[in-house]
Amino acid sequence: GESVGLHLPTLSVQEGDNSIINCAYSNSASDYFIWYKQESGKGPQFIIDIRSNMDKRQGQRVTVLLNKTVKHLSLQIAATHPGDSAVYFCAENGAAGNKLTFGGGTRVLVKP
Amino acid sequence: EAQVTQNPRYLITVTGKKLTVTCSQNMNHEYMSWYRQDPGLGLRQIYYSMNVEVTDKGDVPEGYKVSRKEKRNFPLILESPSPNQTSLYFCASSPGLLTGELFFGEGSRLTVL
Description:
Chain A is mostly beta strands. Chain A is built from no helices and ten strands.
């Protein structure tokens, strides 16, 4: 598959454990944040989003936490399995809301 | 099936030979965008379009052109490709950026020799 990043921070996690991926965003005016998952050879896929009027949102096996005070976003994946191995990106919509700005990504490797 | 379709998926070309990467979406989305992805640099926006005949530069527009004559299509044009445009390109669309996620295509791997 395609290489999406050769020098990404990598999180190794044991199958069944929980994963936490962190992201610092830059624009205090951003009011919409998204987490994407990118598997090898594929385009980024939406996981979960959160608006700035919330500090927590839960999906199926995933939770996003937003701390606007320190401009920090995290993604928690419960009971990680090998299918979760991918590169994860956070994105923010910025002040004008006309684009998404992506973070550098974190590679998650799930060990069986 | 709702999707964003890019073509070609893989292309090797030579410096200076004009090429176009097509992008089409079948979701009636107003917003479309092109990103390039490079190792260590993540996803960077090249151009975006808020609607038909409305396009604007992203963060790295140099060497690229786009057009939006129809709602569904948003081609990326490299008039005179150079080796520094070797990259993985993604097209994406959204109903309207403030309302939700970007839907991405599968990517186009371009190599310029």
